[in-house]
Amino acid sequence: MSIRDINQDWINQFDKPLIIAGPCSAESEKQVMEIAERLDKDYVQVYRAGIWKPRTKPGSFEGVGAIGLNWLRRVKEEFGMLTATEIANASHAKLALEFDIDYLWIGARSTVNPFAMQEIAESLRDTDKVVLVKNPVNPDLDLWIGGLERLAAQGIKKLGVIHRGFSSNNKSKYRNNPQWQIALELKDRFPNIPIICDPSHIGGTRELISEIAQQAFNLEYNGLMIETHCNPDEAWSDAKQQITPERLKEILVDLTIRKKND
Ligand code: PEP
Ligand code: MN
């Protein structure tokens, strides 16, 4: 299989844009369940929580680890949501598959590493789970596409990308500069690949989320991933960019998300 064979069937099954929401990091079973309970299931189809967190600097919270898989399982059982988590190596991939996590995403710090991508791709061989590839931290479109090629070559069909912006030394209002033209080039070259925007990591502050999300919809992205926390200011990672489930709903309503045929 090649990336030309990827199709949008898996995302077209939703009658609204795909919304993935939940905390940057799972912190406790109580926190995970409270956020899930407060999310409006009419708007959010997939619950995200990072349990393995590749952090830029040592000493930061690196995730609760495999125990969090049980909490995501409870979210699925009790709220009927699909679940998503980040995987960064073969053992994460194996455990996530064992626990029937529906969406696996590859973080910006892994997409940048061809050996990591290859190892992950091989450990997901022929999976029918959805696999989403975040752009690499650096503005290198070929690395991003290379990651997709490695996954497609292993027979993984339900693929998509997440645009989360790029590191830059230039000061700007963004935490990660969106450099929309890079994502749009990918979209132009591969219109068959679903593209999701991550306004939380692009913006880095909660005030920017709605304008970035609107921009993504203006550019006809297929969905959004937005970090959502029951107590954003106290979050153990990415506190400044997280919003409450109630604020998320307001933003989504303002984006006037409609059914495709409306
Ligand atoms: C995340 O989604 O919490 C995350 C760590 O993202 P990124 O890989 O985009 O930095
Ligand atoms: Mn985060």
TrEMBL record:
A molecular function (GO) held by this record is: chorismate mutase activity
Q: Which residues of the full protein are shown?
A: 1 to 262 of 359
Q: Which UniProt keywords apply?
A: Coiled coil, Transferase
Q: Which residues form the signal peptide?
A: none
| Highest rank taxon of the organism | Bacteria
From the broadest rank down, the organism's phylogenetic lineage runs:
Bacteria, Pseudomonadati, Bacteroidota, Flavobacteriia, Flavobacteriales
Q: What is this protein called?
A: chorismate mutase
The EC code for this enzyme is: 5.4.99.5
Could you provide one GO biological process annotation from this protein's UniProt record? chorismate metabolic process
